[in-house]
Amino acid sequence: MVEMDLEEFKRRFPHLALEMQGSRNKSLRTLMESGVDPFLGYEPKAEDYIRRCNTMEEAERTIDWLLREGEISEDRAEELKRRLSSDGLRGFGPKKRPGHYLRRKGYI
Question: How far, in Å, CA of 25 to CA of 32, rounded?
């Protein structure tokens, strides 16, 4: 992790610094300033990616991508596709919207 003081951050990322300073979400800003990462060590699973999909086809492409990238094995890809076929897209859980983890932790 790269460390920099606030002035350096403002110089390098002026728009982001302004956005963070003007944020109504004080708890997230405070958390970010404290250096605590609530998701430290969290690795999304295949199901996490699938839960963001809008269609079965998109979920199938996601599974194929995870396989190509070496994130899952062929056996796991086949298992996920069988589950998708039998249980449907929401068989993996409700759809995850943008900001899911921040909302879940109560930061937004």
Answer: 11
Domains of the chain by residue range: 1-36, 46-104
Token pair for residue 8?
């350096």
Residue pair 80/73 in contact by the 8 Å Cβ criterion: no
Contact between 89 and 47 (Cβ < 8 Å): no
pLDDT tens readout for residues 87-99: 999 999 999 888 7
Distance separating the N- and C-terminal Cα atoms of the chain: 24
This prediction has a pTM of 0.61
Q: How far apart are CA 14 and CA 9, in angstroms?
A: 7
Contacts of residue 106, defined as CB under 8 A and 6 or more positions apart, other chains included, come to: 27
